[in-house]
Amino acid sequence: MRRKFALVAGLTAMVAVGGAVVAAPASAGPNCDSGYHCVFYSTISSARHQYFNSDPNFSGDIFGDAGNGDGHNQSVNNNVWSASNSSTGGYESHYYDGASYSGFLFCVNPGDYISSTASNGSNTSTTNGSGLTSSLRDRASSMQLHGTTSIDCW
Amino acid sequence: MRRRPGDPAPAQDTPKESVARLGLRPPISGLLYTWTGPQRAIALAKQHLTVACMTKLGFRYDPAPVAEVTDGTAERPTFFGLESLPSPASGSAGTLPPEQHRSEAFTRALYGDPDNKISEKGARFSVSRPADGCQAGAERRLLGGTQGRLPVSETAVATQRRAERVPETAGPGH
């Protein structure tokens, strides 16, 4: 049976089919400095690039913060698998397919992060987690900050 | 209607033009991504509670303004098949004040203990959000729990998964 993504309705309630609500271990932090919006090569522990403001074009940006080394110094453009939002001003981070904020892909709420469950970005298995769905990963080319919008961000 | 000889051929929409006449996106897109007044009121109330909580803890918190209720032209995801459509206007995003560097104490007050998160795990990725702190506290007070608004994204993910017919391949550099 195909596993389905589960949503938790509240702190104590759980609605899941094949998913789970778990307390994150101490090592699983957002790995994104205060005020920044971060993108990662694979998992939330992999190489990172931090943005303090909107960026209309990821070309030329690299994952310069090594993290666990996975993806270190690789290009950010069209290479993002995970994202974290450490906004101090209540900003959502909106990611776009093209430069200059064209082609909205997804967004991340303040304080939240979305992480690939793959431990190695080269893992292409579809049964053990390989990051964002294929329609979203390896596509982000720009990021813009927004106040709270009507879009249900992650 | 049958055309008579000599009548000009009816103008034919291209596929893109046909979609454009529908309002650029399928009608459900407007239902999913257009705010109502009450929804915006909830967002404003959450912001108000968060600010009050932060003030009580000795911090000044000035969040970015909540988007206005629009006529449905707000930014929306463009699902597969319609990616050639122009993106709607992104509103006043360019006029917002920049982020600020804040202390660890401020961040902890706002988002709680960084080691205490609520995580929702699926087959491909996990989403984590604060379990405590002023923001999470405001959400609990208003919504009875963590923000937990994923029906649209979940729908999008589920829809995209059903459409996937080929094995996934890694992108450049992966």
Structure write-up:
The complex is a heterodimer of chains A (154) and B (174). Helix content of chain A is 0%, strand content 25%. The radius of gyration of chain A is 15 Å and the shape is globular. Mean pLDDT of chain A is 77; it is low at 2-21, 23-29 and 119-131. By secondary structure, chain A is mostly beta strands. In chain A, strands 3-2-4-7 form a four-stranded antiparallel β-sheet, with no helix packed on it. By secondary structure, chain B is mainly α. Chain B is elongated. Classes of the chains: A mainly beta (154), B mainly alpha (174). Chains A and B meet through strand 1, strand 5, strand 6, strand 7 and strand 8 of A and helix 3, helix 4, strand 1, strand 2 and helix 5 of B. Strand 7 (113-116) of chain A pairs antiparallel with strand 2 (125-130) of chain B.
What features would you highlight for this structure?
heterodimer, A: 154 residues, mainly beta, three-stranded antiparallel beta sheet, globular, disordered N terminus, B: 174 residues, mainly alpha, two-stranded antiparallel sheet
**Strand share of the residues of chain A?**
25-35%
**Widest beta sheet: strand line-up of chain A:** 3-2-4-7
Distance between the termini of chain B: 56 Å
Helix content of chain B: 25-40%
Tell me the distance between the termini of chain A: 25 Å
The H/E string of chain B reads: HHHHEEHH
Low-confidence stretches of chain B: 80-93, 148-171
> What is the gyration radius of chain A calculated from CA atoms?
15 Å
Question: Count of helical segments of chain B?
Answer: 6
* Residue runs with pLDDT of under 50 for 5 or more positions of chain A: 2-21, 23-29, 119-131
Order of helices and strands of chain A: EEEEEEEE
Q: Provide the spatial order of strands within the biggest beta sheet of chain B.
A: 1-2
Average the pLDDT over all residues of chain B and give the rounded result: 69
Structural class of chain B: mainly alpha
